Please model this.
Amino acid sequence: MAHNRRQFLGDLAGIAGLAMLPNTLRAAANAVTKPNIVLFLIDDMGWGDLGCYGNTFNETPHIDRLARESMRFTNAYAGAPVCSPSRAALLTGKTPARLHLTQWLPGTIYPHKKLREAPTPLHLDPHAPTMAQMLKVAGYQTAAIGKWHLGGEGYLPEDFGFDVNIAGDAHGHPPSYFGPFGFHHLTGYTKKDYLTDVLTDKMEGYLQQAAGNGPFFLYMAEYAVHIPLQARREMIEKYRRKNGGKDEPDPVYAAMIESVDMSLGRLRAALERAGVANNTVILLTSDNGGVGFQGRSLHRISGNGGLHGGKGYLYEGGIREPMLVHWPGVTRPGSVCNTPVIGMDFLPTIAGIAGTSAIPQPCDGLDIDGLLRGEKPLDRETLYWHYPHYSDQGGTPSGAIREGDWKLIEFFEDDHVELYNLALDPGEQYDFASSFAPTAQHLRAKLRDWRRNQGAAMPQPNPDWEPRLAELRQGPAGCSWLPSANCRED
Model:
């Protein structure tokens, strides 16, 4: 008993002394058991937009350095081809089909298309726990900086477990990347202020306060590189000179990508200054593929690394994402993982990193810890997607399944399917649905069974279908316009 009492008093003395240590030493002491976690989410970035994924025009030195020090994934997927459902899947570990949140919020109505889209709510289900709520129970400080796009008042980040929320609200994109701004907890500024830089300033301030006060979880969700395409003039001119004054590659888009890269660089520098870099896990990805063509015109924005399609499509260009995981002492620097993973995997994986088993159920993702350690394969062969909507980029209601190297897309308008072998044809140029009919039938049956098990909502025949008016659409305010008009798009 005496020994136990002395041990207990010693523990108390250690805790008291810890409070008086400098921040960097306190951070090191606190971090022995729980690492800090940063989820760095880029908006609308294509699979091939980064140097570490083969892009030779865009300059991303900080992200490329992170890739050299991390595990890089070549078959990482978003849970949906547009932002709100993808973010919901990432934060909850549940498929958009299960959540019934399958379209960007609040969405666009096409009153004369062939199908009437499946209904979707106007906000994230408050009964669907997020990774922030999970991590708070595990003793983490939690902060969301940047884009939320999962609901407005009553459904903001602070309503889903985040202690701090800066600029997260119903906005799907900024009206302008230059001030003044009108976001939740981020207002004012001037036309000289650039949003990506301002959010990074806020991020640095948060890290200065949070480091040393226990483990933290930072959800750094950039608004960039979503349209409108805007960047600082001097950076645009740099890329305009680089491409000889041509419009493609787009110099503004390249400048926006570099601004996000600079934000990542400042994040890592802030972690170093706070003395917590060696105990901070960084996970970097994007919410959906890059926009292939702006306004359905011939002006290309993202090339998506040569993948077919882009945002709003279930082709690879719409859902395959860059993904880096930097876990000091665990992930081998410069390692590459070719195993398919998906957005729902983030929640159980982050739970494992944090050392908590209290994963909200049901969970549709898997903990990829074995992949990160290079120890064992993932016990899963099949991935699924459900997008029962028309996208503003031209996509139509559809579902998809990937099993091994085979990928099937089912199009709901006319009930046809397309079958691709991603090992032989990652660009999805050759449809094998006819020549490998048994494979197509097998995958279609599995996809339909999965939808039934998820309770997925389906589009229905539209009695107001009118082909001549099919491109007319209605926004949330009820205004109608044509795709070429200068109106708000997600």
